[in-house]
Structure formats: C-alpha cells, structure tokens
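#help-structures

NK: newbie question. if I give both the sequence and a SMILES, will the prediction place the ligand too? trying with zinc ion
OV: yes, paste both and it writes out the complex. here, I ran yours:
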Amino acid sequence: MGPTLTFRPGDHRALRVCIAAAAADVAVDCSPAKATDPAQSGFSLSLDGFTSLSQANAAARSVGGERLVPKDVTAAALVEDWTEWDERCLQPALRQGNAAAIQACLQELAAGVTSTGFLHGQGPTLADVCIYSTLLPATTAQLVQLVPPISSYVERLAALGPFKAGSEACLCGASPRTFAEVFAQELAGGRSVHPQLPVAGKRNIMITSALPYVNNVPHLGNIVGCVLSADCYARFCRLRGHNAIFMCGTDEYGTATETKALEEGLTCQQICDKYNKIHADIYSWFGISFDNFGRTPTWQQTEIAQDIFQQLSEAGFLVEQTMEQLYSEAAGKFLADRLVSGRCPKCSYEDARGDQCDNCGNLLNPTELIDPICKLTGTRPVLRTTKHLFLDLPRLSQQLQDYIDTTSDLGGWTTNCLQVTKAWMRDGLKVRCITRDLRWGTPVPAEGYEDKVFYVWFDAPIGYISITANYTDEWKAWWQRPQDVDLVQFMGKDNVPFHTVIFPATLLGTGKPWTMMKSISVTEYLNYEDDKFSKSRGIGVFGNDAKDTGIPPEVWRYYLLANRPEQSDSVFKWTDLAAKTNNELLNNLGNFISRVIAFTHARFGGKVPAAVPGRGAEIADELGMQIQPIVQQYVELLEKIKIREAIRLALVISSAGNKLFQDYKLFDMIKEDRPEEDKQTCATLVSALTGLVAILAALVSPYMPTTTDKILEQLQLPASSILLTDDFIARTRLPHHLISAGHQLGARQLLFTRISDEEVAQHRARFSGKQSERATPAGAAATAETAKFIQKQGKSGPVAAGIEKPAAVKQAKAKASKAAKAPAGAEQSPGPNAVSLEAPGASPAANGDASAAGGQQQATANGVSAPEGKTSKKEKAAKPAKASPAAAEVDQPVDVSRVDLRVGVICKAWRHPGADSLYVEEIDCGEAEPRQVVSGLVKHIPEAEMQGARVVIVTNLKPANMRSVKSHAMVLAATSPDGSTVELVTPPEGAAPGDRVGAAGFEGVPDKLLDPKKAKVFETVATELASNSERIACYRGIPLATSAGPCTVKSVVGGSIR
Ligand SMILES: [Zn+2]
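OV: that's the protein plus ligand as structure tokens.
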C-alpha cells in the first residue's frame, strides 16, 4: 500500500506534497476530504496505513521531497534551514496577516534567491517547493503583492513540470482560485483575517503586555517580564478553551525616538521601522503568539487618542497652564530635558544634563542649569513661556478609588501591585501634563497646540486600544464591553502606577463604558549573574543574543518562566540554566517521555497496549488518584497567573512516571520467563504511562509549545486531543484509559540536549561585559578560545584585524560608558514616571549598530593583507592549480586528482547571521588571505570545537552564495551510516595549511575550477570518499594523505565523506 494523501482540493499543505511527489515521480493516492469545519485540519498523509503525518513539510519530504535535498552536509543544511524558515517565519507571518513580518520575510527571501533563480543549486529543492506552496495561495488571495525578484522566482517555479503537475493534482479539477479560498478559510479557522471577537457564554479574555519602547533591544528581563509571561498565559487560556486574544506592539512616539534618530542619522520613521523589526524578530524567535503585534504610529492611534482627548476636554477634566521652558532659537524648538546641558546648580559640575547631574546625582529641571547649552546646535537656549494641557487627576480620584477598591479584590491584584497603587493614592494625585513641544507624536487637536503632541505617558497606553483596532474594526466589542471581557495586563513593576492609576483615570474621565483592567500580573526584576540587567548599560543577555547561543527557544522559555521573578527578584545564572536544562528538562521530563516511547516501541510494536483489570489497573488507578489533583491544581494556579509554580507540577508528574518505571522494573516484568499476569500488569502500566505523556504534552504546552508539538508527533495525536478542558481533566483520573488501546505511536525523538560545563564557561565569557563591546556573531565570536588560538598561532594579520572593533563599535562603546551613569528603570513605556519616559534611554547597545558593524568587519577582513614574514611561504603555496589548461579539463577522467583538496585551519567560526544550521568560517589554507567558508555543521559540531580546528577543504569549487554569505570552499566531513554523527576530516599532525591532500596513484593536476555545469566532478568523486575501519579517510579505499600522513576522522567508521 502506497502513501495516501487526504486533503481538501486547493490546500497549500497538499500542494507541496503533490509537487514533491511529482518531482520525485512517487505515486500518491489522493483522497479528497469533504469540505470540513475549517478549524479541523482535513489534511493528513498516511504512509502505510499506520503512520500518518499531519505536518505539511514533513509530509512533502516523506513522499519524494527527501530526494530534493542535496546530499552534501552544507547544502542540505541550507535547504533544511529554508524549509524550516517556511514553517517558522513565512507561514506564521501570512497567517497572522502581519504586514511588517510579511515584508521582512519577503526581503529575506529575495536576498536568498541565488543567481540561478533557486535557493540553492541549479534546480528546485524541497525548500523551493515548500516556500512556493506557501506563497501561491496567499498571492492568489491577493493578501500579498509580490515584486521582483520574488515575483519572477514564483513564476519561474510555476512554469516547471513538477510544479504544474503538482498544482493540477492538488486542485482535483477545481479552479486555481480555490487555492485562495481554502487559504482564506484556513485563516478564518486560525486568526486575524477574521479576527476573534468576544463570544457569549465563553470566558473572553483580552491579554496585553507592556508595549516595549522601540529604541532598544529587549533583554531577557524585559522578555520574561512582559511578552513571555503574557504569552504563557495566553497559550494557557487557549488550551483551556477560553476565548483569548493577545495584543502587543512597539511604543514608538516621543523624544527618545527623536534622539535616537539624531544619533543614528536616520529619520524617526526609519528608526521605528528598524527597531520594530528587531523586536518582532526576537519575539518571533521566542515563539510569542501575539494575535497582533502592532505599533503606535497608526491612524487608529491618532483617531482614538484624539477622541479620548476630546471627551476628557468636554467633561472638563483638562486644564491649561503656562510654564517656562528652554527654547533653542537656532533649532527653532523647545528643548527636551535631555537636549540641554550646563553647569550643575548644586555642585557646579560643568557637564550636568537637563534632568540630572551625573556628578552629584541630583535630579534637575533644565531651567535650573547655569549657562545651559542646546545639544543640537551648541547655542545658548532662552527661556520662553509655553502653555500645556494637564489632566485633572485630583478631580478623578474618588471615581478612581472606587475602581481600585472593587477591581483589586475581584481581579486578585498582587501585594506588590497594591502597595504601589495605595502609595500613589495616599500621597494625593496632582494634575499631570499631557502635551509636549515635540513633533514625533500624536497631534493635539486643539487651537494653539499645532506644534505640540501628546506626552507619551498619555499616548502609549492608548496603544493597547489602537493595536486592537488594527486587529479588528470591531475593537469596541473588546474594549467597550466591560461586562463580557476580562482585561489582563502584564508588566514589570515599574509600570504599575500607569496601569492602576493613570490610564484607568484617563478612561474613567471620558465617561464611556471602557473595559478596564481587571487582573494585573507584575514581575519584579531579573538580575544577571551578579549585576542588574540593563538596557541602557548593555549588561546581560539580550533577546538577539539568546538566539546566538545555540540554546533552543523552548529551553530559554522554560528557564525564564520557571525562574520568573514573581514574588521577588530572581537571578539569571548560566550555571543555573545548565542545571535546570540538564536535571529538569533532560533527566526528568525528556528522559521519562523518551523511555515510555522507546519501551512501547521495543515491547509492544509501538502500539499503546490495552489496559486490563488486575494488579496493573490497581496501580494505574492509584497513579490517577495522585495525578488528577495535580492537573487540577496546575489549572487553578495558571488561572491565577502563578506561572512559576504551575510548571513545577509538570515535573512532579514526570518524576512520578519515572519512579513508577523504576519501582515496578517494567523491563523485567515483560521478560519471556515471567508469568502472563506480570506481562499484563506491564501492559496496563505502559498504557497508563503513555497517558501521562499525553498529560505532560498538555501541561508543558504554554511553556514549551514546540516541545509539545514534538511530543504529539511521537504520540501521533492532534493538538485538539490535549485541550485542558474540564472533560480532559476528569479523564486524567484514569491515565490508562486516556489513549485508546492499539493506537500507533510515532518514532521517538530526542527533546532536549545537555548543556555542558564548557558551554557554560564559554557563554559566560562571551556575555561578560557590555553588549556593545562584545564581538557580534558576524564579527567572529571573540571567545577566550579564539583569542587563545590567535595567540598560539602568533598571528596579528587578518585574524586580529577581523576582531578589531570598527569605528561604529568604538563609538557605541564610548556612548555606552557615557550612558552608564544613566538612571535605571523606565525600560518600557508606559514607564514609571514622566521624566524617564522622555529620557532617550541612551541605548548604545542597539542591536542594529552592532550587527551592521559586524557586517563591515566581515567585508573588510578579507581585504586585509597578510602580515609580513608570512607572505613568502604563502606565495609559494598559493594556487598551484593555475597551470592546469582549461581545455583539457573536459576530457580528463573524473577522479580525485581533479579535486583540489588542501589542509586548512579554521581561524574563526561563527554562527551564520541568517541561518540557524550554518557556520561561517575563516579558513587559513596557506593563501595570502583566509577563505570565507560556509558549513552546515551547527547541529553536529559545537562552535567552540570549530575554533582552531584543522580541516581538509575543497578549494576549487565554484563559490556559492549561502543565504547572502559567500562560501569559497567546502569543509570535508564524514557522516556515520545512520546519519547520527558528523565529524570533521582531520589532516595529519605536522601538515601545514595549504598542503595538498591526495590519494596515491591519483597525482594529476587539479582543475582550476570545478564547473558544475560541465561535469559533476566533485559530486562523482564524493560518492567514493569514505572512512575505513581504521577511521582513515579514503578515496576508493586509498588513504587521503599529505606527505605527513593520512587524514582521519574521530570515530566514524564506514562513513560517507563530503
Ligand atoms: Zn551636580
């Protein structure tokens, strides 16, 4: 029986399967599904009647797509990377209709399409098939307008035979419009194009996390404090069957943006675009499931903010006051505090800032400065009278007090939140200025205020509403239905008064029936090792750094949430991260699941055994009695947003599973010589344990959604089967009846990998110091190891030049040290107080800076000439292949002599900035300059091992573009027969960079350049490269060697070499 594909005609998931099958000439039985509820999948691929796949790209791979993945490690990694990117970036962006994310994806794709018109090589790969299948319905539905080069990329693919045949097969005779229709229905079943609205009879929950200010890169403390905690809760709500939406976005208006724009020489819009993307990318990497991640500068923001202003004005809650402010005649504007400096009135320090003196620490008003200077023009500003509008908070305080009294009780506000709120109310509210002399903001719709905008503290919380309005035109269904909607807000503790006092007062003042905040989840601070995380000082691990560590997002999510500063501050420690990963995730949770799946496969043919009455059922029943209350408690804790406590309970369950496994020695129980009764007991217990695995899949899902996906794949269960409904919770009482007997499990997958002490040490060294001073991934991880290597090699040429800081980084560093004395706090807005909200945030550690600088490093590193003294040797070794006459190449026999294999040393290796599975290396191969090479070894060889590694490289391949990074050679690696191990081919001790590697009897002169269009020389030769039983790399059984001896691999015997 061949594979059977069940799908609705025009489903893009089936499209990729059909194209892959057509390309590989695999026959697939098509069994069109009936028009179903769009929320139901309606898509599956049954491979043999037992195993079925519901993930589209995996299905495409299994029916011929595998043959569309190139054989060599690097090219394969590149294709895998793009295939994953399709699933992880492109599909979600389209499903969410997130215009900015779609735009970013298309730009990334445009940069990836090579000159051949494909993502890699001369023809379509699995990646092209998947991306094409994702784009086609979205473009047919006109959700996306494609422009060159993407439009021509798609057209080129569409014209190819397998793509035509695949489309036809997928449509089953329907019109191509069907692609669009099915996609629109999928969106409706998902989110956004038909947005979720409150539903009668359901619990409707609107979740927000504090809007991150756009001029900075968020650090881990910010991430766990807001978006990640909110995401965990939002995922829990959806899992529980509540009708929940999660709104967030970047807060983009204000002086901070203007200042940042001046610093970077960009417009405010450009700054916002840049940092909005940085934020969006980081959150997407962390798997944050926003229903909308918007931005504040939208016309909805203007409309709603101005409406609220008008209503406040009509209700008489606005008062006008005049004040004196510094005005720069040269710049033609009033100066924000940070744009003024002068002598401190308290200590006479010469360079005091407008808001604070760095010398004595006193808070200042810019008008107090002696001899003030305008920072924009260097001229002396003058005092001018200006008028501003103030919100009359004192007149709103009674209404506000009533709201606080009722809601804090109803919504279970935490003590830390109540304390701050009570202090504000007790001290008495004062009128609060809501306008500013600025341009970058929401215009104030009042006469005489044409040059003014709303102050960010007034404007930013309205962002929650306008971002919802960008999500749905019917935003009032969420925001003006207080009886039907619970508003739950997440933030760091410095943001509390804005959400419990000022924003509620603003809304109350309008007299409209707003949905006011009901529950609030406030985090304390996360500290970094022995210091405070600080955006302004660049201390700690930032969102973009997390990705570069190679530690997967689910591990970060787990660690941060399990360590969430819920009641008090908590500390981020690398050793703790490793300990939690190794002990809790790997040894406890991962080990349990892995054991159960493996055991079921080994002893029960991968089928869940039937539970039978008897001793096994009694034990399982007891287990259920223990487990069910835990599940119940988990749900209760998360309903109260006790995120940190709830996840402990999942581990209690996996511990119980592990214990049962050990206590009853299931491995022994099933042995041949044991009585039938024992075997039955064992079968029943295994059935209960698979039930436990399903329960764990549910409980970890708000924390580690991709881990849950992997568990479900192993269980071969759909996500809908583990919803934490009351029914499911009731069924956890009998875990041995949770999954039906005879249900076939999927293959075992490893869920977590160990973090070693060396990695901990490496990360610690790498992230010590400020972010702006660190080498960026593109600029070579200047780890201790690399530095040592460089010293040992005694080189100061290209390598040293490569890690020297370019001007941009130096500048950033200068700014960093200058900014180091800036007050902490105000890292998100709406912030703790107006002063720091307006502060430019002094963000020298901006990601954009650093990576741009990294790019420069990379570009110039190759242009630096070799150090003196080394030159002569290198000249001798350089390009011996030059003599080879091009004409003769065609007729030569195809063997290893034509491949130019050389000894190389990796000067430095770093993670490819745009592809998770690729390294970029600089390799000294005896030439004047090191070569830049891209290798797909990230999953196989730790970054630290790459540094300084001695390798064998193919130097006469045509340079290839690997996701925008040129690769000028290929590193040889051996792959074990089962594909599990990949190791570098190592040249013999004593061989020098540039030494030729060859096989005895094949001494010919290598081709100058192996042209893949003429003959696939390397591809052919590679089929005869292998490691022998002595772990020696061989060609046709003859050792590959230099004059110093043969090349070897570490452990792989009989491995293929490429
Ligand atoms: Zn002072």
